[in-house]
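[scheduler] slot 2 assigned
[scheduler] job type: sequence-to-structure, two independent chains
[scheduler] chain ordering preserved from manifest
[runner] begin chain α
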Amino acid sequence: MEPALKRTRTVAPIHRNESVGAEFVRRIPTLDNQHRVRGFNDYIHGTIEMGPLEQRIIDTEEFQRLDELHQLGTAKFVYRGAKHSRFEHSLGVAHLAEKLVLSLRRRQGLANITEEDVLCVKIAGLCHDLGHGPFSHLFDDVIVPEFFPGKIIPGMNGGEDWKWSHESASLKLFDALLENNGIQLSDYGLDDQDRQFIKELISPPKEPHLRTGRKLPNGKVDFDKAFLYDIVNNTQSGLDVDKLDYFSRDSQRVGVIVSDRHEYQRLFQNARVCYVKKGGREYTQICFRDKLVKDLLDVFRTRFDLHYKVYQHKTVKAIEFMIRDALVIAATDRKRTISVSGKPSPVCPDGRYGIAEAVHEMTAYAKLKDSILDFIAASSEPELEEARILIKRIRTRDLYRCCGELETFPEALFEEEDNEDRLLDEIIHSYHRAYPEAAARTSGAKRKRPGGEQGAKREDDDASLRKHELILHKKTLHWGKGAQNPISKIHIYTKDMVREAEKVEEKRYETLLPKAFQKRSLLLFCKSKKMEAAARLAFRAWSVQFLGAEGSGSDPTNSSGESEQGFRE
């Protein structure tokens, strides 16, 4: 028997092949025919149709900005085909979100899923990435913490402090987009609860009982619609249409084929809304047929492969650190040479916002794009000279160098927060202990050159290690849920039990599993070519502290370049 899902709104039935946009056009007679449905030709999904509300959102400065944010950030400097933007990705997510919810409604006859529900899910997919900054996750994970400890943004005008994430920024920018462009959701059949629902779909509260975007007439949360929160941003298992789109799109653009765009079609065909139990409550969730376990594992493995081959490629990370350093220099310029205009506020009464200050005001923030590098490079102020040099180094391929990767170390070393500075001190100390002569150079001691000239500078004097020229990076690769098996977060139904779903026992598919779902390593980057050789030796010497006890039997002063147990150059 199908789930007895409740009807919350009464609407005319929609035909099998009729688009959501067309349905809404019939109900909005004030719109011209030319604004009914617009088609976008997409290289992944073919034709993507957008209705009147979607078009209004797309045709705004806030949304068009996504066309100037590269989807893969700094990966475009390594994979030259990776020039696609968050604009096309957002269209793809909206398309898949609509396609999935319509597929579920049609195949299961879910009469309680209204046209408003479908439109809200589609709008959430369209707007889920509005809050990304220049170079995507670089801004979230590196720039914001540099100026706001813990990513806590102080509230303005008596407002509460809030924690930065691109999802939380998307919510604020979504509100700003509607306000700045005079878009009234009521003109498209949506109300204030629908607006709240869209925002919750973008950034869902973790627990279903906290999700208030859909309520019953008695004011209680409608748990029969809980599955709608699994579509755009699935906080339960991590499997959502956002990932399905960028897996296909990214792998196609970088030429690293790890995902087939037909994978999602098989998943959609075998997806089903079932009841699951959690915390004494029964609510709906998108579940999958038991025969799809291997397909699901392949999707999560794709995430690992893309991070391994593309997103966290050592050269991609090196360029990311260089852009970070350039942006930090520009953001700390008191003259605000690089600034954007916005609404006056207590932070910037004149309405001119620096790179970091722009997070306080969404009109200003919406003007930050990847093109900020071009403005820095074209500047002439002496305060930005170092930033200009870094950008030139990127463009002339004079990059920071990865001097080694350590894969075997105590887990507590990785778990400890903010210990990179201390570890760099240890690395330099290990170098000085293994190479006493280097310690003497660093302390400024004078030596005799061959030939008897005392105090003259030797050619390798600048090769002594300096901490500010080193970067220690903690790298984590996983299948989507850290060290946990992501399949353990998904409920599975069988051919004979389609109404309720359960978690599948791992032993039933253990032969398909990897030895571990998470891989961690420590990487050392060096900013100066002159220090590269010394940095390699220092990292190797330091690594022996963790590898020697494991019986590697290696010489810390060995500079042959041969790999040691758990250590790679």
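[runner] end chain α
[runner] begin chain β
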Amino acid sequence: MANSLLSLYLSLGSPASARRLLADIPRPDAVTWNTLLRACLRLGLLPAACRLFDEMPERDVVSYNSMVAGYVAEGDLAGARNLFDGMARRDVVTWNSMISGYARHGDMENARKMFDVMPERDVVSWNSMLDGYAQAGDVEMARLVFDGMPKRSIVSWNVILALYAKLRDWRECLGLFDVMIAEGNTVPNEKTFVSVLTACANLGDLEKGRWVHDLVRERWDRLVPDVLLLTTLLTMYAKCGVMETAREIFNSMGEKSVPSWNSMIIGYGLHGQSEKALELFLEMERDGPRPNETTFICVLSSCAHGGLVLEGWWCFDRMVRFYSIEPKSEHFGCMMDLLGRAGLLEQSENLIENLQGNVSEALWGILMSASQTQNNIKLGEFVGKKLIEMRPTEVGPYILLSNIYAAEGRWDGVEKVRKVMEEKGVEKDAGLSLVGSREGGHFINESGASAPRNDVMLCMLGEMSVHMKQPSEGSNCRKRSPSAP
């Protein structure tokens, strides 16, 4: 009875009451000592716990387990291992503490060694190994552990589902969830639904997402529907374009996080409701949390999709001046997309100049796309040369620039690109040949093998530019294959 009261006082954070009670216990037993030991460790007082451990007249496996766990919690794996090695008797809890400690600190080699030699394993042992490999991003080993588990808990399923979601392997995530439901041995919880709904959102699988939503409703009374789960749910509907349902969930939330607002803003923007996106941003400024840099990516992207040029400039200026958020490449990319769609290419160029040369390839790509949409060959030529400067030994930028010349019938430019490629040995390394003609510039794979994916994408971009200029003509960029004419 006294030990139970002591534990209660300590758990409630009442050391004075615990001290008075301890004074009335004539002969503290092992349970009393262990209760005090755990209390010290729970408060992070490892040095005090060590002194108490040294003074204990009798130590049992519970005492040792508490200390091993305490060392692990403090990141002192050497201290934990030293104590572990000195134990006369260990149980599965002792082994699990060490395995968990190694796994948590990324030492999967030692974790594996302990796991392999431990005399008895439980689901916690397996979960520790699974989580360790998952944290390390080692999906192959994580899956081996998961598939080899004699028994799985909800923790096991959540770890593997979250891993596939983290790796953006959405289909594998949903496939495993189907297996989990079919087996019927484990009841999904909030963490399960977050991973699965994230997969549905990124695949745009509305039918599956609605089915998962129904499962959430069925278990609503047993769930703790926190902000993360509700945000993931509304994000799924927003990405799938069902904005009315997304807004209903958003409005029902007692507490809304910044990601909740961001998901709604970008949802409106991507699905043709840019003005609603801007209205929601203004509402967020007025009644919600402080916007972050991601918020401005969402609102600027929404302005770009809706052609809201002045509003986009206002948001960009507000981000910098009022919120003191330093623009990143994503923000500049949104602005260049906004200006490019509106045909304001000169302003896009000025924006790039303000970056003081620190321009990523992605930003140049956005400007290139805008130049082709607006049929600005001069700008396209300028950007093409910049891309060559960034990737002088890769064939893709040369393909793009040559097709720009071909679209204008500038065969001298096509020939010049060919010569530069020959001088730099690019054609030989890439295995591609440029064939210039009055009908256009063709890039043919001499070996019949597939060209690198980036180069093919750039090649297709160049082909599209030719089609925009000469819609009645055939393709100007192709690979030689057995089926090609």
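[runner] end chain β
[qc] chain β: Residues 69 and 97 are 6 Å apart (CA to CA).
[scheduler] slot 2 released
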